[in-house]
Structures are given as structure tokens and as C-alpha cells.
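Q: Hi! Curious about what Casein kinase I looks like structurally. Here's the sequence.
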Amino acid sequence: MTNCNDVDADEKHALRKQCNEKIGMRLRQLENKMHTICIANRYALTECIGKGAFGIVFAGVDVATDKPVAIKLEIINSNRRSHLQLEHRVYRALCGEGTGRRVVGIPHCYYYGTFGDYTALVIDLLGPSL
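A: Let's find out. The predicted structure is below.
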């Protein structure tokens, strides 16, 4: 593995571009097989609703209750901290971890864990962005 301190700016840019291309390819592969994926044997992916630098967001359904959910997936990368882990912690803190209470405007977290090479976060499916 290359140490970023040992390369110049052009090499860093090339390495970042190569990494982003690999991530993009893996996310496209995931999107192509989404209808066969079930997270934690409970949450089925139904359609892609967004993509970002670190992952992809799907609309999904809780197959046990038929409730619509949002499913966020990010590729596990040992070189950086998980954004979904931080997001999960923030939601739990805002809702009063362990209280079971619901806060209007803060999505409830149904599942957080790993799924193959991905970190998964299943939350309430909220409305459009403001």
C-alpha cells in the first residue's frame, strides 16, 4: 500500500481518481443486483434513490411489516472512518439512546451493521429534502 506522505500532489490525485473509479464500479454492481438483496434477512431493496461519494441510498421495505424504509450502504474502507457509523451515533444521541422515544424529524434507526463488503444503515424513509 502506498503511503500518502511519500507521493506528490499529481500522484495523490491519480490514486484518489483510481480509488473513486473502483468505488463507482462496485456501487454500480450493487445497484444492478439490488432486487435480490435483503439486509439482515428483513429489509429488501426496491429502488435506488440517491448516490454520493461514499455510498448509495435505496428505498426499501421491511418484509416483516411491509413498512417503507431507507437503506444506506457504504463500502467498508479500512483507510477511513465510516460515515454511516457516525450518522448512526448522531441519530441515537438525538433520540436519547435506549429511551425508545421518537423525535419528530429525526429518523428512527432500525438496523446498523455490515452486509458483505458494505456497512448498512436502515432508517425511516423520510420525505424530499428541503
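A: A fun detail: The chain is about 30% helix and 30% strand.
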